Structures are given as C-alpha cells and as structure tokens.
Amino acid sequence: MPKKKDGKLDIQTEVFDLFKIIANPIKRETKCLIDSKVPRKPRKRKR
C-alpha cells in the first residue's frame, strides 16, 4: 500500500493489523465457549 504524507493510512493499517491479531484469539475463545455451551451430548442422550 502507498503511504500517505499525513500518516492516516499507516495508522489505519496498523490498527487493522492489531485488530486482526487481537480478534483471532477472541474468535477462537468465543467459538470454544459457544461449543461448550451448546448441549450436544444431552441431545444425544434424549434419543
């Protein structure tokens, strides 16, 4: 990406990269939490 003189583009890309780095583990954690909250085994027991 071409850098702008005012540095706005730099900050945007840096923030976006940080967001991606922070969001990935959060996504994994939330997915794990959702998976653990979803009662799949009890459903199987009901059969």
Describe the structure.
- The chain has helices at 8-37, 40-46.
- The model has no long low-confidence stretch (mean pLDDT 75).
- By secondary structure, the protein is mainly α.
The helix count comes to: 2
Mean pLDDT: 75
**N-to-C terminal Cα separation, in Å?**
56 Å
Total number of strands: 0
List the main descriptive attributes of the protein structure presented here:
2 helices, rod-shaped, mainly alpha
Write the layout of secondary structure elements.
Layout (H helix, E strand, L loop, with lengths): L7 H30 L2 H7 L1
Short characterization:
By secondary structure, the protein is mainly alpha-helical. It has helices at residues 8-37, 40-46. 79% of the residues lie in helices and 0% in strands.
